[in-house]
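Notebook B, p. 112. Complex prediction, attempt 2.
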Amino acid sequence: MSHSELEGIVESPWSGGASPFAINSKKLGMWLFIVSDSLTFSALLVSYAYVRLSNPDWPRPFEIWPAIAKSTLMTLILLSSSLTMVMGVSAAHRGDRKKTVRWLLWTMLFGALFVIIHATEWVTLFGEGVTPWSNPWKPMVPLFGGTFFGLTGLHMLHVTIGVVYLGVIAWGFNKGKWTGDHVEVSGLYWHFVDLVWMFIFPMVYLMSVNLKG
Amino acid sequence: MSAHAEAAATHEVGSAKLFLQVWAWLLGLTAIEVLLAYLRLHPSLMLTILVGLSLIKSALIISYFMHLRFERLGLFFLIIPALVFCICVMLVVFFPDARRLVDMRPQW
């Protein structure tokens, strides 16, 4: 096959040769990471559901006030941070450096707020004697702590890494080191972290209020 | 995705108005979820509704905030079906087994 023929394939209308998805490699990489990370979180959520279903004595410690109110507030914060993130990505693609950094800083602020509220909730639970391996409720189901802290802890770690990641991106974008594509890819990660919470919030918190039966 | 949508995507991948609308929808669905907590429904009914609402919310986030709606259809097929399949496999294997453990408990 001659060189010109190869070029013809690369530039053919379906663009299957060089870039089948018509996105840059960073974005494809982030999507593939998101696929694998969503399977990690799915496995944790499924294992949470599994041990909960198989334990009739599963504790339901989260009341409407304060736990559900607090986690609802955290949901609002995370959803709003996703909104500021898309605004940041739009600004980055328009090349508006100042606005991009401002939106990214808002996103980081919301993320940090989320982690702080979540951490106070953890501290309250620790104060009540709830740890990853035991809790004060009778009959004691130690798996509650293991699955709860494992699931929410991994999510909190993702939010924390996200705040740092956005900080690095905002710094680099401001310096002109990186482009709007970098901001967009960091946005994909941030929305994914938001998305995971959209499953943790109902399944761990809302399913814990006093239900019938 | 049609050629028309693809052409549109290169020009416009969502306006501030669209993002605000999506955000409002997400908040609304969250409000419904929280209101459900007051209704004292049967757990299985509650779980079904919550999972349904969460799937709608994640579809909104993936489509608009993560732009997947504006990407090539090939990217959707690369990502979503395999993910859904893997999660379904986990559910099919683990849920019946969780019930089995409950049934195996000595009755008293």
